[in-house]
Each structure stands twice: as C-alpha cells, then as structure tokens.
C-alpha cells in the first residue's frame, strides 16, 4: 500500500496500523516517487550520486514526499507521526505553509476536524492557516465545493464499478472508489466542524507588567472553553483610554510558542490600558482586559534620577590604560627587553609543534617551587606535550612570599593575556628593587610569556580559583580554556582525559600526592567548574543572598556550585525591570525598617511584587538552609537594583549586619547544604565580569 511505503520513508519505529489511503496523497506520492527511492531514507547516500543537478532534483523530490507524508498523517489524525516529523524536519523541509492542490494547509485540516493536539503541535512549529480563507463566506464556499466535488467523484466511480464487468480496470476503480469515499467523509467532517464551531471566548487571563521606561510586557493564556474551535492567533490592543477610543496601536500574534508580547515605543510616565482577543476560524472573540487594568512605563532609576553605575566605566578604563601605555612608550624600562639574550627568542614560538620538540622547557616533575600549568580541553580530550604530560612551566624555585596576594594579582593579569610583553617591560624597571613581591610578579610574567611562546597561544584562559598545594612544598597555579573550534593543528596530540589519568605513573604515595597528581585526580571537577562558571542566567529578576566569610588574607563569598559566577539566588519573575512604583514601595518599606516580608498581610495582598518576594524569600531560605523565622531579621538592600545588562537584575537579601561577614573562628549556625562553595571575593568579581 502507498500508506505503508510512506511509513517506510519515516524513522524506523513502531507505527500504528495503516488507515485508508488518501487519493490526493497517493497521487502526490506516485507522481514523485520512483521505484529506486522506495527505501528507508536512512539508507539514502547522496555521495553515490553523479551530478549536482541530479542531487538537487532528488532533494526536492524527497522534501515533496515529506510534505505529502505530513498531510497524510494529519488527515489520518496520527499524532505520533506528526510529532515525529515536526521533530526531525524543519518547517521549510516540510513545506509547512504551502497549500496543497485543494487549497488547504495541514493546520486547516487539523482545526476543521477539531483535532486539538495535532493543531497545537502544528502551531508550535509555526504553522499557519490557508491564505485562501479571507472570510467566513469564502471558507464555507470552499468546503461546500470540496464536498460536492468529492460526492460527484464518488457517484461517477460507483456507476463505473456497477456497470463494468469484473477485470483489472474494475479492481483499480474499486480502490479509487474506496479512497474517494474516505475523502468524501473527511470533507463532510471538516464542513460539519466548521459549521458547528463558534468564535472563541476571551483569553482566560491577561497579565500586564512594566518592561522598561518605554515598554510594557503583556502575558496571556488561552481561553478555558473547550467547545470552540482551536485558537490560531491573538490580538493585543493598547490605548490611553479605558474605553479604548481612540486606539493607539494593535499587534497580531500568530507565533504561539510563547504567549507574550512586548509593546515598544511608549511614553514614560503615561498610563496605558491593554486588552487581548483570541481568533479562530469563526473570527475574533471578545477582548479580555489586563490585570492590572493599566500600567505606566517606568524604571526604578527614575525615582531619584540615578544614572547607571557602570555607564562609561569601560571607556574610562580603556582611556586610562592608553594614557599609561603612552607614558611608558619611550621609557627606559623597554631597553632590557630589547637587549635580551637570543636564547629567549624562539624562532617557531608561534607553533604548537613546540609541544613535541625535544628541547621544549615543559617540566615533567615538580621540585619544590611555584609553577604554572595550562589546561586546554575539547570535549573529553586534553592537550598534552610530546611526552603525554600536561604543560607545566616554572615560575620560581625559591618562592617564599605571601601567595594569596600574588595569586590574586595574577588572576587580574589573566584579563589581559595579550599585554604580557608590555607588562613585563613596565615591571622590569623595578628589578633593581629588593621587593620580593615585584620580583615574584616579574617571574610570573616571564613564566606566562614562556607558556605562551611554547604553546603558540596568547589566551591561556581562566585562572582556577585556588592554587594546588602539596606537602612537598609545591604550588601549582592552573589556567583552564575550552577549545570550541574544529581547527586542527599539525602534530598536536589530544589525549582522552581518562587515558591521561589512568596512564600517569605517580611518583608519590597516596597519603602525600604531589601537586600534579592532585591536579589529575581533580581534573574532571575543575573542568566542570570552568564550564559552569561561563553559564548565563535566563532573563528575569532574581533575589540574591550575600554571605561573606573572612580569613587572615582574604574575604570569600558563598556561591552555588552549579553557577559559581553568581551569588546564591532564586528567580522572582521573568520580567527583569523594577518599575518606579515598585521601587517607591521598597523604599517605603526600608524607611520604616519593616522586616522582610515572610507572612501575608491583607493590606498588601494586592501588591504583585510583595507576593513574589514572599515566595522567593521562602525558597531562598530553604535553599541555603536557614530557618524561615530567622529571615525576619534579614534586610533587602534598598540602595539600588543590581543590573547585569538589560535582561538580568538582582535584589539582594542581606543577613543582619553582624552576620553579613563571618570572622575567623566565629561560629556560623546556619551551614548551607551541599552544593555550595566559597570563592575569594576578587575571583568572584572577575567571574561575574566575564
């Protein structure tokens, strides 16, 4: 059967028993399907074809078959097949919005047979209704014509079957008769579905929120009624008048994957009323007014006219750096670098071949000192030297100064890997000084230059938040970088991480592993940290929890392991904007020193932000393992909203002033559950900037 042939063209999986064939689907398939292509499409090998023109012809034929198969699946109401095809084909490959010979689209058939699951699946994929139906009358006339022509064709074939003697032609006519009888019933069902349908009810809910000082966001939900036809689009209208006269604007939304719309280009400080209507094949339904009934575009900064904190900062820093470079351009400190011995120059330092050059200066073992290692990884592979070792260079074999301050300085240097040569030239002038710190930092710059030269790569990646220390007196600073491109390098060796870990011969005891052994043991964890630290939050307003702890030489901040570049947080809502009215309410709450809202109050139940904060605070307290009654002493930071670009913003929740930062030796009764870590504050700041 033709239906079974089309099933063979789909993914190899269990299918429902085939239903009666559609005559038009059969015609489309027979017209384009030759015998040599009646095979499962997974065995199709374009590489064996000859000529670009033939490939293009076969591609078009194959796409046409996919389109025909989709029509047949919708006509047979086979939801599984429809979903499978929408999953594996793009709308363009399925020709989703091109009418067939009857002037119908797959979505038309689904909605007029009242098949809601298939219609929703098609709408999610971007399906539209046929442009032939410009009015209710045109749709009704079109359906009546299809029913009449199908009935006429059934009568003609029936007469031929009755009057002709049994033969091969008669058998074929009987098949055609059965197919047209099936199509006649389909068109009658579509016509009845259209006639009994009614216009949709109003959307069940419409929520209006302030998106910025010039825009409003409208979120709506489909009508609750199940008796009307499938809704295929919505209309958003807005006006300054509650009667919507005059109407200031409207927008039709026919992409129904997300039921929301942002009204742009509004006037700040002006109240706008919004309503939404639903549409189906019987026309537009009644509008639903928004909740609240109007909103005023604004932003929290309008409360006191405050400018963005970071406005112009990046430009000012770039200008300052340019001035510093200009001052040092003709400085005598450049001379020592110009007159360095030739041994420091590598004729092929730009090439990764140095990884496999016998004379490379990578180290295989550590001998009590400060070292730098660079981890480059791609998928489950890691870049190694010609001796299957992780690249390691020595910084200082007599290191004795305070490590943390030097380490934090190096993390800042990692933001300007391309400027290492210039930094070396600037630090060289201080070599005559007896400063241990300057000597160590100059050696760090030399080690970085050596690593860049041997690898032929300037960007060494992100510095891991803490160095590795062993009991032998070795300190290993680790940088991490993911290689995402498919670029290949001559003679470069990528080794699977598991092979590197299992193949290394340790020279230390399990009780006292060396820093290199500790690195290999924890390598997967470090790579996971590096990947998670580059993840971004989805757009929205968040509630963050600020908790610090201090040590002798640093302050550390509590962060979640899954997103270590962000404070502990929960999402308040998807709209990141805080309006002027909301900020005024927060300021009023702070001015009267009210506790954090953890219990509902009748007079505030109508404040959406108040309700959202209640839910968020309870969720956050549970996340960090703090009893909810303790949150009554916590405070919301009311000086500003922390904006991270245009799509993410934070409100901060602070513990009591005495507990914001836990001092050394101070007992912290509320220990977070597993899944958190503490980062040095400077490392956290760099991660947040990245």
From TrEMBL:
- State the Gene3D superfamilies in the record: Ankyrin repeat-containing domain (1.25.40.20), Immunoglobulins (2.60.40.10)
What Gene Ontology cellular-component terms does the record carry? Answer: spindle
Signal sequence annotation: none
Q: Where is this region: Disordered?
A: 1-25
Pinpoint the Fibronectin type-III domain residues: 202-299
- Give the matching InterPro entries: ANKFN1 (IPR039269), Ankyrin_rpt-contain_sf (IPR036770), FN3_dom (IPR003961), FN3_sf (IPR036116), Ig-like_fold (IPR013783)
Enumerate the Pfam families for this protein: fn3 (PF00041)
SMART domains, per the entry? FN3
Q: Name one GO biological process term.
A: regulation of establishment of bipolar cell polarity
**Identification of the protein by name:** ANKF1 protein
Supply the source organism for this entry.
Nesospiza acunhae
């Amino acid at each position: 059967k033709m239906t079974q042939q089309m099933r063979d063209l789909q993914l190899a999986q269990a299918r429902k028993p085939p239903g009666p064939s559609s005559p038009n689907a059969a015609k489309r398939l027979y017209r384009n399907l030759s015998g040599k292509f009646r095979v499962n499409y997974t065995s199709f090998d374009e590489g064996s074809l000859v000529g670009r023109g033939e490939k293009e012809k076969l591609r078009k034929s194959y796409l046409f078959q996919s389109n025909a198969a989709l029509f047949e699946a919708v006509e047979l109401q086979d939801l599984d097949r429809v979903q499978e095809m929408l999953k594996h084909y793009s709308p363009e490959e399925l020709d989703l919005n091109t009418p067939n010979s009857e002037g119908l689209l797959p979505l038309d058939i689904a909605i007029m047979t009242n098949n809601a699951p298939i219609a929703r699946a098609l709408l999610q994929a971007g399906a539209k209704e046929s442009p032939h139906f410009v009015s209710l009358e045109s749709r009704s006339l079109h359906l009546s014509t299809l029913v009449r022509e199908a009935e006429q064709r059934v009568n003609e074939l029936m007469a031929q079957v009755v009057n002709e003697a049994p033969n091969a032609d008669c058998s074929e006519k009987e098949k055609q008769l059965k197919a047209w009888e099936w199509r006649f019933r389909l068109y009658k069902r579509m016509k009845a579905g259209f006639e009994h349908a009614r216009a949709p009810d109003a959307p069940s809910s419409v929520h209006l929120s302030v998106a910025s000082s010039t825009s409003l966001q409208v979120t709506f939900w489909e009508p609750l009624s199940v008796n009307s036809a499938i809704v295929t689009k919505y209309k958003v209208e807005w006006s300054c008048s509650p009667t919507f006269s005059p109407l200031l604007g409207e927008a039709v939304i026919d992409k129904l994957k997300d039921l929301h719309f942002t009204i742009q280009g509004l006037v700040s400080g002006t109240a706008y009323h919004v309503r939404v209507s639903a549409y189906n094949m019987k026309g537009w339904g009644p509008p639903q007014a928004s909740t609240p009934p109007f909103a005023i575009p604004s932003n929290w900064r309008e409360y006191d006219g405050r400018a963005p904190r970071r406005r112009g900062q990046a430009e000012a820093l770039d200008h300052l750096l340019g001035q510093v470079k200009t001052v040092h351009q003709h400085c005598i400190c450049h001379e020592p670098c110009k007159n360095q011995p030739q041994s420091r120059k590598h004729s092929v330092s730009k090439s990764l071949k140095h990884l496999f050059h016998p004379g490379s200066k990578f180290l295989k073992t550590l001998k009590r000192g400060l070292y730098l290692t660079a981890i480059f990884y791609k998928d489950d592979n890691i870049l190694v030297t010609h001796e299957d070792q992780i690249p390691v260079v020595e910084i200082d074999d007599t290191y004795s100064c305070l490590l943390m301050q030097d380490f934090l300085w190096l993390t800042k240097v990692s933001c300007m890997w391309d400027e290492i040569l210039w930094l070396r030239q600037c630090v060289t002038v201080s070599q005559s000084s007896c400063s241990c710190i300057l000597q160590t930092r100059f050696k760090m710059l030399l080690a970085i230059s050596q690593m860049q030269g041997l690898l032929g790569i300037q960007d060494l990646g992100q510095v891991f938040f803490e160095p590795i220390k062993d009991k032998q007196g070795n300190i290993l600073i680790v940088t991490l970088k993911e290689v995402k491109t498919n670029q290949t390098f001559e003679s470069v060796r990528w080794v699977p991480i598991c092979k590197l870990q299992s193949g290394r011969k340790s020279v230390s005891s399990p009780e006292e592993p060396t820093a290199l052994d500790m690195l290999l043991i924890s390598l997967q964890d470090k790579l996971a940290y590096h990947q998670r630290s580059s993840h971004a939050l989805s757009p929205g307003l968040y509630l963050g929890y600020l908790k610090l702890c201090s040590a002798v030489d640093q302050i550390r901040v509590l962060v979640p392991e899954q997103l270590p570049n962000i404070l502990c947080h929960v999402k308040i809502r998807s709209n990141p904007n805080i309006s002027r009215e909301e900020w005024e309410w927060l300021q009023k709450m702070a001015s009267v020193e009210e506790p954090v809202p953890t219990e509902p109050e009748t007079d505030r139940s109508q404040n959406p932000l108040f309700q959202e904060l209640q839910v968020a605070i309870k969720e956050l307290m549970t996340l960090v393992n703090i009893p909810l009654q303790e949150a009554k002493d916590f405070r919301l930071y009311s000086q500003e909203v922390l904006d991270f670009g245009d799509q993410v913003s934070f409100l901060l929740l602070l513990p009591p002033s005495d507990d914001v930062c836990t001092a050394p030796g101070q007992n912290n009764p509320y220990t977070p559950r597993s899944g958190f870590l503490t980062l040095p504050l400077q490392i956290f700041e760099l991660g947040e900037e990245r």
